[in-house]
Amino acid sequence: PEEPVLLAELKPGRPQRYDWKSSCETWSVAFSPDGAWFAWSQGHCVVKLIPWPLGEAELCKTAERKGRGGKGEARSRGAAKEKTLECGQIVWGLAFSAWPAAGETEPACAVALPCLILATGLNDGQIKVWEVQTGHLLFSLLGHQDVVRDLSFAPNGSLILVSASRDKTLRVWDLSRDGRQVQVLSGHVQWVYCCSISPDCSMLCSAAGEKSALLWSMRSYTLIRRLEGHQSSVVSCDFSPDSALLVTASYDACVIMWDPYTGEQLRTLRHVPLQSALDYSSEVHTSSLRSVCFSPEGLYLATVADDRLLRIWALELRSPVAFAPMTNGLCCMYFPHGGFIATGTRDGHVQFWTAPRVLSSLKHLCRKALRTFLTTYQVLALPIPRKLKEFLTYRTF
Question: pLDDT class for 59, splitting at 50, 70, 90?
Fold first, then answer.
């Protein structure tokens, strides 16, 4: 694949009102599931909601307009306008979900279509949930005692929200029941950095400043297992689109790919400094990882590390297929339809990069379709040849 190209960069639009660091850092970016909106925690208690351009040509035009000092990106979708949410506290975590259309639901949508909602995790432990189209505040969820660092909605539209906090707990909320707190998950002894619900909604992975990640059942809200293998704090995790794989990223400069059903380590991706990055390699943990995410079709990973590189990895290879130089990256996320990656930086910026577009093989499409509803154990029980089982469980590619 070609090296990622920087398409556009967004910068915070008002001067900083705080001296302390976290006020200007972009710890979280999010695309809505349909790809129509982009949210960015740009520091100073503000979330920017940007209607997403329809294609690469529009994104390039946006970049040109920005280069000429214009503010054209908000008008690229006609009626949809860029929005600003004043959260009152520094924003750390972001997550979108659709609110199913139903006559008696809380958000009063103008049309009988699903509303889009955005949850924001705040510095004081609050979670504020907003209706995107109107900018109305729907819920303030109270319970956490410290920074809400990350948020994850169940992808099935059930309005179950999981929050991860520096108070060392995860909390489960049901927005369909007026934001009721369903469960508190305790088990971490350090700040919880990241939470990710599997696409089939059966599992939850959480990463704290510990060498192990925790895997929870989303049905019983009990701990399934500890995933042990990293040599330093695990800070980011993500499931593959078919729920068959889980990746964890750590300050030990490694990404480990796991089978979440068996707890088996399938492979380790090591972040080795590039020749051009050797200037920075004298420091300890120069390749400390900050973020990892799967591409929408499940064949690539993106990682952001402290060695000033965005890396793109192909699942079947143990070394990156593409690099891009970026300074002080903190988070990364793929566009839901592929082709772009958004990254957030320590100075409050967001950058948009081209990502390899891939046509999935028929073999991979079949594997993905099967693994969406079959666990590893169910695959292993099938009366099929061993090589096919190895392929379906990602032991071979």
Answer: low
Question: 33 in a domain, yes or no?
Answer: yes
Count structural domains, the chain. Answer: 1
Query: Is residue 393 domain-resident?
Result: no
Q: What is the mean pLDDT of the chain?
A: 86
Largest pairwise CA distance in the chain = 64
Q: In 3-state terms, what secondary structure has residue 1?
A: coil
Give percent of the chain with pLDDT exceeding 90.
Answer: 69
Q: pLDDT digits over 301-346, tens only? A: 999 998 889 999 999 898 899 999 988 899 999 999 999 999 999 8
Report, as an integer, the average pLDDT of 288-300: 95
> Can you tell me the distance from the alpha carbon of 371 to that of 358, in angstroms, rounded to the nearest whole number?
20
Please, which contacts does 388-393 make with residues 24 or more away whose CB atoms are closer than 8 Å? 391/363, 391/367, 392/367, 393/244, 393/259
Contact assessment for residue 125 and residue 146, using Cβ atoms and an 8 Å cutoff: yes
Q: Which contacts qualify for 358-363: CB closer than 8 Å, 24 or more apart?
A: 358/295, 358/297, 358/299, 358/300, 360/297, 360/299, 363/391
Residue 112 has pLDDT above 70, yes or no: no
Q: What is the pLDDT of residue 143?
A: 96
**Cα-atom radius of gyration of the chain, to the nearest Å?**
20
Closest to 157 (Cα-Cα) out of 179, 183, 175, 134: 175
**Does residue 375 lie within any of the structural domains?**
no
Q: What does the alpha-carbon distance between residue 94 and residue 79 come to, in Å, rounded to a whole number?
A: 24
Question: What sections of the chain are H helices per DSSP?
Answer: 56-67, 362-371, 376-380, 386-392
Domain span including residue 291: 6-55+80-101+112-274+284-360
Whichever domain contains 123, its CATH number is 2.130.10.10
Q: What is the pTM of this model?
A: 0.89
Helices (H) and strands (E) in the chain, counts: 4, 28
The reply to whether 67 falls in a domain is no
Euclidean distance between CA atoms 163 and 170, whole angstroms: 5
CA distances from 324 to 205, 252, 347, 374, 391 (A): 28, 21, 18, 36, 31
